[in-house]
Amino acid sequence: MRRKALRAACLAGAFVLAAFPALAMTGVESLAQQLSEQGFTEVRMSKTFLGRVRIRAKGPGIEREIIYNPVTGEILRDFWSTNSSGEGLTLLNPFDSSNSGSSNSGSGSGSSDYDELDDALDDWEDARDDREDERDDRRDDREDRDDDREDREDRDRDRD
């Protein structure tokens, strides 16, 4: 009887462990599919030393590298370059008040490119802040539960 229970437990554990890599690959496959839909023709994937997934993609006039953590599902880095020679690149200065697009943003297509980069940076910072807020909320909830448990234990100890 014990053998059957042990065998069933081992078999169930094996199924659970086998399911995790499949779940992790779903995110990677989704990213690769999205890159293909965006026009990237060459998409290569490799593992990093820390177990993350590096996705390199090439498209017409653009190269992109994404670092993805399959355990957390978080995109840790999303870098792209459009000009390998380095000519005509615009570096966003977050401390420059003229970045708002109202006064010294330039004219023509350069302005809209700059605005798109500025919007993308704002979106990325907002997403990062949201993740940090959620992490802080979980930590606070955990600390509150610990405090409540300690208070209950103190009350029970005082009653005895």
Describe this structure in words.
This protein is an alpha+beta fold and 160 residues long. The protein has two domains: 1-85, Roll (Nuclear Transport Factor 2, Chain: A); 90-160. It is 54% helix and 18% strand. It has two helices and four strands. A four-stranded antiparallel β-sheet has the order 1-2-3-4, with helices on one face. A hairpin with a 5-residue loop joins strand 1 and strand 2. The two termini are 44 Å apart.
Number of strands: 4
Spans of at least 5 consecutive residues with low confidence: 99-111
Label the CATH architecture of the largest domain: Roll
How is the main sheet built?
4 strands, antiparallel
- H/I helix tally: 2
Radius of gyration: 25 Å
User: What's the end-to-end separation, in Å?
Assistant: 44 Å
Q: Quickly give the structural class.
A: alpha+beta
Domain count: 2
The overall average pLDDT, rounded, is: 74
Strand content: 15-25%
Shape: elongated
CATH class placement of the largest domain: Alpha Beta
Helix content: 40-55%
CATH topology of the largest domain: Nuclear Transport Factor 2, Chain: A
